[in-house]
Amino acid sequence: GGGGGGGTRQCGLTDQGLDNSAPYGVPMFVRGNVANDWAAAPDNQLIQFGGILLKVELQVEAGAKEFKVADAGWQNNCGAGENDTAAIGSAFTMACGTNPPNIKLEVPTTDCYEFAVNAANKDAPVVTVKKANLNTGGGEEPVDSAEIRIYARDVLNPGAAETLYKTVKGSGTI
């Protein structure tokens, strides 16, 4: 069972209708050679997802990248702190201030990546970069090591228990 019926969507998130300038008071952008060459481009703007969570999806080419999270005028400028290298799928605490170092990121494959910023601490927000899920539904892909169990019940004896009739391993047929 499972799988099928789903589709995919384009890279990019839909504006949630919330105040995209919160919590910094100005719109914030993912800026760097990850997309649009350091510009505060509309496609790079972080979208408010409620309270302290800001997210954007960007199509990123594979390779060594550098980025920061900053507003259009670099007044709110968040980059590397004690550590300068972020990893895909891991939370990275940024340092905000006057021109902090760039955050280094090794992107393994060209794909759509989600940049999620938790700004609970606006001076040390946490960014997590991960491959975006572009599936639009339809259930999970079936697991290769699926096991199908068939049970039987004696319907002529009320209250009879189910008994295991047959087990099929993998994606075999009965």
State the gist of this model.
This protein has 174 residues and is mostly beta strands. It has strands at 29-32, 47-48, 53-60, 63-70, 77-79, 85-86, 91-93, 95-96, 103-107, 111-118, 126-131, 147-152, 163-169. The chain has no helices and 13 strands.
Q: Mind telling me the C-alpha Rg? A: 23 Å
Number of helices: 0
Mean pLDDT over the full residue set: 87
| Helix amount | under 10%
Structural class: mainly beta
In terms of DSSP E residues, the strand content is 35-45%
Q: How many strands appear in the DSSP assignment? A: 13
Largest sheet: 6 strands, mixed
Which descriptor suits the 3D outline? Answer: elongated
Reading the helices and strands in chain order gives: EEEEEEEEEEEEE
Span between N and C termini?
Answer: 14 Å
Q: Any low-confidence stretches, pLDDT <50, length ≥5?
A: 140-145
Topology of this structure?
Layout: E1 29-32, E2 47-48, E3 53-60, E4 63-70, E5 77-79, E6 85-86, E7 91-93, E8 95-96, E9 103-107, E10 111-118, E11 126-131, E12 147-152, E13 163-169
Parallel strand pairs: 6-9
Antiparallel strand pairs: 1-4, 2-3, 3-10, 4-5, 4-9, 5-8, 7-11, 10-11, 12-13
Report on the structure:
The strands form three sheets. Strands 1, 4, 5, 6, 8 and 9 form a six-stranded mixed beta sheet that branches. The chain has strands at residues 29-32, 47-48, 53-60, 63-70, 77-79, 85-86, 91-93, 95-96, 103-107, 111-118, 126-131, 147-152, 163-169. The chain contains no helices and 13 strands. Helix content is 0%, strand content 37%. The two termini are 14 Å apart. Strand 2 and strand 3 form a beta hairpin. Mean pLDDT is 87; it is low at 140-145. With 174 residues, the protein is an all-beta fold. The chain is elongated.
